[in-house]
Amino acid sequence: MYSGTIVPLITPLDMDTRVDTASVARLIESVHRDVAGLMPTLSSGEGWKLSETQWRDMVAATCEHSRGLPVLAGIQLPETGQVIERARLAKELGVDAVVVTTPFQADISQDEIFAHYQALRAAVDIPLFIYNEAAVSGNTIELETLLRIFALPGVVGIKESSGSAELTRRIVRADHTVPVFEGWENLLLEAHGVAGFIGPLANLEPQLCNAMLVDPTPERQATIDETCRRYGVFEDDWYRLVKQELCKRKVIGTDLVVEERT
């Protein structure tokens, strides 16, 4: 059962926009004592923009330098078939689980969302983390659908990034055993009963994230919010701004971001 702070790693690049393995190692070194798991190639890792080579290299580097922490590889691809192929690659690379969003489709039905995860579980025998968000996929998963998905074999957690603290609380209170992780720093105080947190601030201040989980007071939430504003975590290009801070700290070698694929 996963719990605590899991870090959605940014993807360090070298000057040729290849994954900078040495920077990946330093980044993991900087946070590994304070996190319960490593989540590369998700939104903070620019997962939806990565080429297959960049994705593979980042996941492989994370596994190589994991320091014994579980590696949960993000998969953000538009179609179910693509997700299945990427999940097979993740299994070959030795990850502990895959973290999967819904297909990229604004008008998708809840039955189609369930079928997406059902097909993935049938095709690849690997533990599955659900990623509930709308910024990339254009849709979110309703509670009733989530409960159907949670009943599938091998579902080990959910990154709940709908942006609704009310929905998060409803998921926590529902009848299931899947650990629920809040995906928004500013909602930690309102997201009562979650098993943990997964958000970009963990790349910079994992101890602060842990403190908020242990003792979620209004004062600590105010500190979290101010810290996020200082580092640009609430901005649309948060991954770029987090990289800039890590570069200033000399944790990573460049603050380059992945170019959008056309």
In short:
This protein has 262 residues and is of the alpha/beta class. It has 9 helices and 8 strands. It is globular.
What does this structure look like?
Belongs to the DapA family. It comes from Kibdelosporangium banguiense. The chain is α/β, with parallel strands linked by helices. It has a single domain, classed as Alpha-Beta Barrel (TIM Barrel). It has helices at residues 21-31, 52-64, 80-93, 110-123, 143-150, 165-173, 206-214, 218-231, 238-248; strands spanning 4-7, 37-38, 72-75, 97-100, 128-132, 155-160, 180-182, 196-198. The protein has an 8-stranded parallel beta sheet. Helix 1 (21-31) packs across helix 2, helix 3 (80-93) runs parallel beside helix 4 (110-123) and helix 4 packs parallel to helix 5 (143-150). It is globular and about 45 Å long.
What structural keywords apply?
single chain, 8 strands, 4-hydroxy-tetrahydrodipicolinate synthase, 4-hydroxy-tetrahydrodipicolinate synthase activity, DapA-like, Aldolase_TIM, eight-stranded parallel β-sheet, TIM Barrel, lyase, 12% strand, 262 residues, alpha/beta
